[in-house]
Design brief:
This protein is mainly α and 139 residues long. It folds into two domains: 1-43, no CATH class; 44-139. 63% of the residues lie in helices and 6% in strands. It has helices at 31-34, 38-42, 45-75, 80-114, 121-133; strands spanning 3-5, 11-12, 25-27. Strands 2-1-3 form a three-stranded antiparallel beta sheet. β1 (3-5) and β2 (11-12) form a beta hairpin. α3 packs antiparallel against α4 (80-114) and α4 packs across α5. The relative contact order is 0.11. The mean pLDDT is 75. Bound molecules: zinc ion. Zinc ion (ZN) binds at residues 5, 7-8, 10, 18, 20-21, 23.
């Protein structure tokens, strides 16, 4: 299910309100969507990007969870102070990994799909990393 904002034409993977501007969302195959300007349809590449981004976000959650759980499992048999330190550290690393992948997915969809061809891979990687280090301002 792909929906598009009637106000700012951002494509979303569902929902009723645009998360960017609060405008109402319509299905991309709605009559209302077909009355939208040509530029909107170039953004349709975002359909696939958004879907790939969502899959990647699921992967990110599983990757983070796996790292955290393996770390905790490894930590428990350790001697007393280290079991707690290890468990807490593993969870922190898991959350950090998830966060990094999540931000990268978000960022990657916007940069990669919208400006594909205009951006070199190195620049993309740098943009992803700088974004991961300084979290984006989200409303
Ligand atoms: Zn909007």
């Amino acid at each position: 299910m792909v929906k598009i904002c009637t106000r700012c034409f951002v494509v979303w993977a569902g929902g009723f309100r645009c998360e960017d501007c609060g405008g109402p969302l319509v299905h991309t195959d709605d009559a209302a969507a077909h009355g939208m300007p040509e530029a909107v349809w170039r953004n349709q590449r975002l359909d696939y990007g958004a879907r790939r981004g969502m899959i990647f976000r699921f992967l990110a959650i599983f990757a983070g969870l796996t790292v955290a759980l393996l770390g905790v499992r490894w930590s428990v048999p350790q001697p007393s102070p280290w079991s707690f330190v290890g468990a807490a550290g593993s969870i922190a690393v898991g959350v950090a990994l998830w966060r990094l992948m999540y931000v990268a997915a978000d960022r990657g969809v916007k940069i990669w799909i919208l400006r594909s061809g205009q951006l070199q891979k190195g620049k993309l990687a740098r943009a992803l990393l700088s974004q991961a280090v300084t979290p984006s301002k989200r409303s």
